[in-house]
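User: Reviewer 2 asked us to show a designed sequence for the structure in our supplementary figure. I'm pasting the structure tokens here. Could you produce the per-position amino acids so we can include them in the response letter?
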């Protein structure tokens, strides 16, 4: 799920890579791969060439993978790298369903993945398998009931939006100041998830102050962890970690800050539980009352903070940008908001459930710009995917939402266009799209627990903001999509804010 810069490479790789064309090379080894038997390995020279091709395209893996998948008859490709397991990249819904549901037990996160993110996410729910994953999921699932969602709207979103987010936008409109909406939405997301997950308010949405140390360290740890994922061989980042240099040194420092801040929050929560004879109904209280050890509680908290903060803010940033280039669609969204039964400025939970066009806009935007561009599992045993692709024990199998959203076979010739209407039947009823065709919330046993909460939060923000303001981008060029552990817009989304003139 990672794309970033790679800092270390040998002169030999640079010299050889300049002589090889990536596409020609890949098509050659792809044809060869599907001709070999299960136990025949590629020649050393071919594996070296594949490694070089991977290195050449490390800055554009999204586009490279998408191009190759669109040329594959099965929307499946196999990438070979010297000294590393094969990567099987899939954009085929049948294959996605197979690894996420049908044969779920054979495709865990796996040691290579948990090792990659272990320093940052530790034993958190997104980085473990088996019993540790099952325990955390069962505990967390209680916080995502319909009752909890209603309370989330009434107690968290209403306060955060009305008393913090809206005043910031009003001030920017009055003073004609430029806002980085990506940064604003990330701060909003951090406040929100801290209240839900930790039962604490970091007051991050105060632009007069620097981001809290925990928030800044999260950004750094996420970025540096992502650097590991594009290393041609894991020995590169492991050697830097052993020597404590470069990005690995920065990662260690950031993780130390994250751990220290979270432990302080845990200690305060433990004292609160002791004094009040019970917690506050947040995730952290539930974890502590279950008697889990401190390290697991810490890692669970970190995982939920990362997921709740960055994914929704990324989706909202890209949607608001999309609206600036599709004013007709934005108008339809505003009309839906106005036509709903909103009592002046107050949004009710029932109102949000009826906002199908806004939901379609969110889904269409996440189809093109998914908050998590790719995710990987590792085969526990040899297997064969539904399209006939062999998978060997230890192979990384990556399902690829970014590429899937750009497959003509799945979305038609207009797949690159922003068309919320594709999510409706001809009679105007919202379509039910298979999560294996649109796996932005994952699917199967590990489907995102916070899916409905995320949709409620995004609908609330979109409805609250669009009904009062419009954004004018400062830059006219198309922004760059950068997928770290979660995606973001390179350079931010800088806008001028204007009061909305209702039609």
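Assistant: Here is a per-position design you can include in the supplement:
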């Amino acid at each position: 799920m990672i794309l970033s810069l790679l800092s270390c490479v040998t002169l030999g790789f640079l010299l050889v890579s300049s002589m090889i064309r990536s596409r020609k090379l890949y098509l050659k080894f792809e044809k060869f791969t599907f001709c070999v038997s299960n136990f025949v390995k590629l020649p050393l020279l071919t594996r070296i060439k594949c490694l070089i091709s991977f290195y050449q395209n490390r800055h554009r893996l999204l586009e490279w993978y998408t191009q190759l998948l669109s040329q594959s008859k099965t929307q499946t490709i196999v990438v070979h790298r010297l000294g590393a397991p094969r990567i099987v990249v899939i954009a085929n819904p049948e294959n996605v369903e197979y690894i996420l549901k049908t044969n779920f037990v054979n495709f865990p996160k796996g040691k290579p993945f948990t090792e990659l993110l272990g320093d940052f996410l530790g034993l958190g729910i997104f980085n473990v398998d088996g019993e540790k994953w099952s325990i955390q999921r069962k505990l967390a699932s209680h916080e995502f009931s319909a009752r909890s969602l209603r309370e989330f709207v009434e107690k968290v979103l209403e306060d955060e939006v009305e008393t913090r987010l809206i005043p910031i936008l009003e001030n920017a409109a009055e003073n004609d100041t430029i806002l980085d909406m990506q940064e604003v939405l990330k701060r909003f997301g951090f406040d929100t998830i801290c209240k839900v997950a930790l039962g604490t308010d970091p007051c991050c949405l105060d632009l007069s102050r620097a981001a809290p140390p925990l928030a800044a360290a999260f950004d750094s740890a996420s970025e540096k962890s992502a650097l590991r994922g594009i290393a041609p061989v894991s020995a590169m980042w492991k050697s830097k970690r052993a020597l404590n240099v470069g990005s690995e040194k920065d990662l260690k420092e950031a993780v130390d800050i994250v751990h220290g801040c979270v432990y302080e929050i845990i200690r305060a929560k433990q004292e609160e539980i002791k004094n009040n004879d019970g917690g506050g109904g947040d995730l952290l209280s539930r974890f502590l009352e279950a008697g889990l050890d401190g390290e697991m509680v810490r890692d669970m908290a970190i995982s939920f903070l990362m997921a709740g903060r960055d994914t929704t803010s990324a989706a909202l940033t890209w949607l608001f940008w999309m609206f600036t280039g599709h004013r007709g669609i934005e108008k339809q969204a505003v009309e839906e908001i106005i036509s709903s039964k909103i009592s002046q400025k107050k949004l009710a939970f029932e109102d949000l459930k009826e906002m199908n066009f806004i939901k379609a806009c969110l889904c269409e935007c996440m189809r093109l710009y998914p908050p998590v561009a790719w995710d990987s599992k590792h085969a526990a045993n040899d297997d064969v995917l539904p399209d006939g692709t062999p998978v060997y024990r230890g192979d990384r199998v990556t399902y690829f939402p970014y590429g899937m959203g750009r497959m003509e076979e799945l979305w038609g010739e207009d797949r690159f266009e922003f068309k919320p209407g594709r999510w409706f039947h001809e009679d105007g009823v919202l379509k039910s799209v298979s999560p294996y065709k649109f796996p932005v919330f994952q699917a199967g046993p590990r489907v995102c627990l916070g899916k409905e909460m995320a949709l409620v939060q995004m609908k609330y923000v979109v409805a609250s903001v669009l009904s009062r303001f419009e954004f004018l981008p400062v830059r006219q060029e198309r922004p760059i999509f950068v997928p770290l552990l979660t995606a973001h817009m390179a350079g931010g989304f800088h806008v001028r804010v204007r009061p909305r003139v209702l039609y």
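For the response letter, you might also mention the following. Residues 150 and 350 are 9 Å apart (CA to CA). The two ends are 42 Å apart (CA to CA).
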